[in-house]
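TL;DR need structure tokens for one chain.
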Amino acid sequence: MTTDLTRIGEKARKEPKLAFTSLYHHVYDVDNLRVCYGDLDKGKAVGVDGVTKEQYGENLEDNLQGLSSRLRSMKYKPQPKRRVYVPKPGSIKGRPLGISCFEDKIVEESVKRVLEQIYETIFEDSSYGFRPRRNQHQCLGRLGETIQQKRVKYIAEADIKGFFNHVNHEWMLKFVQHRIGDPRIIRLISRMLKGGIMEDGLVRASEEGTPQGSILSPLLSNIYLHYVLDLWFRCVFEKQSQGEAYYFRFADDYLACFQYKRDALLFMNQMKSRLAKFNLEVAEDKTQCIEFGRFARDNARKLGKKPKEFTFLGFTHYCGKTMKGHFKVKRRTSRKKLNASINRFTDWARRSRGAQKTSEMIRSARTRVIGHLNYYAITDNSNKCSSFLHHATRSLFKWLNRRSQRKSYTWEGFRHALEMADWPTARIRKDLNPCRRAEAI
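>> reply
TL;DR here they are.
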């Protein structure tokens, strides 16, 4: 099956305009479904039926044969997704997620494995989100390199308002049909999009949107924005720009870099019109056009102002200098993300003090801190990482000492315990200096 999927990718690469008319048999292939079952995480939240991976696996072969049969005969219908909310900075209710039933997750993974082979051959290099062998650090590194080494003077930053909730299903299916000519695949995707959402015991029909939390949702979103924005920028807008123009997108967050202000303002105007055509709009509070680059600091100081900054992928980007006085793009953890990380760690420590043993709690805390540092410990951001590490350490000390008075730690004993647990330091883990690009050891 892996070999067959690889061949699909090779054919898609060789024939970029081909619409594949026979793909559905890969989706219901039992061997493929079995691989998808094995790849799914057993610790993920369950859907409306409450079935876990272990429960589904108790009678795995019969379940997979039955699923394959229903898919083959087009009798398979996805169950509604369970609506849950996870904490989101600046939101009281939180970020809505749609949790699929375990069997639906298998089908979503199967469809994703097939479609990904085709679309990875046509996606633009400017797209970094939710793609194999691509991540935020690569996007940040390429962005910094572009600003420092190209003729960039202006940044147009944008964010789509409620993108995942406003994806138009009709447009989505039209976009998919550019490369997928198998009507059974189209019908299955349509059923997935319109499967409905269950919240507070009530099922609501899905007339638009692709729920976050779904395995297939990131790929479908990339397909949607590939046609709405990525191709439009490269094939239309970039050709009418008077100067250099560059574009970067991670999921629904994107920005563009320009040599001339005229192009930046034109992009902001035409981009909004382009989104409106597909029932989308920008979040005005997260959208701006600023002067940014090697001359921005001096120009701002001449006017008695500070050079402007922008936030992208959790980092505030600002105009800095190297030790030799040359312009350099510097980054620090955004204030909102840093406060959210500290609050999230503190809340976890408070809730865990009575549920875990001391040694287990310290190990869990270490894992959480390392997870934060693995993302945020990049070039020029050691101060903010040290700040997070300081607050996390003090919070852990505080809540460990709330467990009982007899087992309270002194700072000396606490530091010894952290040393024994190999408590992390705020060293740089990702070197994003374009002149010294390598992963720090």
